User: Which sequence fits this backbone?
């Protein structure tokens, strides 16, 4: 399996897109992964589920605008260069 | 001539003093037009006589370049621009990764490298796996053989790429693009492994002092095993390849488990709450074991196409 660095960038963009499209109301709350359902214990070890939920929420908040830019750039580049 | 210091400064003064008095053929100083007149060598009169008649303009131009104040000002402006650019680059780079932290990983010496290579290939007799600290900061690899470093992984990575090219050349399957493909594949696998490790350490809230560079170092140690495996495969054929693969896999698994156990697992004992769920130590153990099991898989994956 020959990986190039471009493959890595493509994988990163696709994975980040996948995390960013998880809608809070329509999807995550239905399966019990909403923002208010994660914080259970108040100890110093939040637990795996809380960490995952935090990660999803922070990726959605932080990467929303950069993802728009990166996706637009890659669409334009793919249209121009195939 | 002052007292010889037996140091750098003394040799530098001696080197600087040689050219104007000695030969002119080899050490002719053509950086300024004045020295051409002072040199009493064999070639310079000919040069001075034949030169000006041909490229008088060039000689006058060279004279003008160094005495013209505009050119001087331009040179100084250019050099100050270069300095500004250098400072800016340094500042930007030190925003992303601290260069001091990186220097810690390259502070190695020969004795450390030899001992570490021996431990990587035969870790079963090494007793003490603790990373020693000195007033709360880890010791450099020069003083502590258990400290991770980045010199061995970098050199092993480059050696692996060269070996891959050589192995493919022996089988007459070589072309220059293959080197690039091999290098980027191996690099991407390292990045994937480090990212997965970072993600799993974050998800399980393991409060260890493993930084990103530490993980890169531990991921890069498998290249030593890979080099050994490929060499044995080239020298002794397919049987030698599998024997070396088994040997280096076992050695690497042992090394990784013993090294990471110290870093990941004992942070459990510092939890003062006695009600830590029983899933925690098992999950941390799973991470360590999964990292160890991943090493032989990736060694086989990256080297089997080299030894057919």
Assistant:
């Amino acid at each position: 399996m020959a990986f190039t660095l471009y493959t890595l960038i493509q994988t990163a963009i696709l994975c980040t897109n996948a995390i960013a499209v998880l809608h809070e109301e329509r999807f995550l709350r239905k399966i019990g992964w909403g923002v208010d359902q994660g914080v259970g214990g108040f100890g110093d070890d939040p637990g795996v589920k809380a960490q995952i939920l935090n990660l999803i929420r922070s990726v959605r908040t932080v990467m929303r605008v950069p993802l728009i830019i990166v996706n637009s750039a890659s669409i334009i580049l793919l249209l121009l260069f195939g | 001539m002052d007292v010889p210091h037996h140091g750098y400064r003394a040799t530098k003064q001696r080197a600087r003093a040689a050219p104007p008095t000695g030969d002119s053929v080899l050490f002719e100083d053509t950086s300024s037009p004045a020295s051409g007149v002072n040199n009493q060598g064999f070639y310079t009169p000919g040069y001075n006589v034949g030169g000006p008649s041909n490229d008088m303009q060039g000689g006058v131009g060279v004279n003008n370049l160094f005495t013209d104040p505009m050119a001087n000002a331009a040179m100084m402006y250019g050099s100050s621009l270069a300095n500004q650019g250098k400072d800016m680059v340094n500042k930007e780079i030190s925003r992303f990764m601290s260069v001091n932290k990186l220097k810690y990983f390259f502070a190695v010496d020969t004795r450390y490298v030899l001992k570490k290579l021996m431990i990587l290939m035969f870790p079963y007799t090494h007793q003490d796996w603790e990373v020693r600290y000195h007033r709360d900061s880890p010791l450099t690899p020069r003083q502590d053989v258990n400290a991770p470093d980045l010199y061995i992984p970098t050199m092993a990575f480059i050696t692996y790429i060269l070996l891959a090219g050589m192995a493919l050349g022996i089988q007459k399957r070589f072309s220059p693009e293959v080197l690039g493909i091999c290098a980027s594949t191996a690099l991407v696998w390292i990045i994937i492994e480090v990212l997965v490790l970072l993600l799993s350490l974050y998800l399980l809230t393991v409060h260890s002092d493993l930084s990103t560079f530490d993980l890169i170092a531990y991921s890069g140690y498998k290249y030593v095993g890979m080099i050994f495996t490929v060499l044995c495969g080239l020298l002794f054929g397919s049987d030698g390849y599998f024997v070396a693969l088994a040997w280096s896999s076992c050695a690497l698994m042992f090394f990784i488990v013993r090294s990471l156990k110290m870093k990941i697992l004992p942070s459990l004992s510092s939890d003062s709450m006695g009600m830590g769920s029983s899933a925690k130590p098992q999950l941390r153990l799973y991470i360590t074991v999964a990292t160890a099991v991943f090493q032989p898989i990736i060694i086989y994956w990256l080297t089997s196409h080299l030894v057919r």
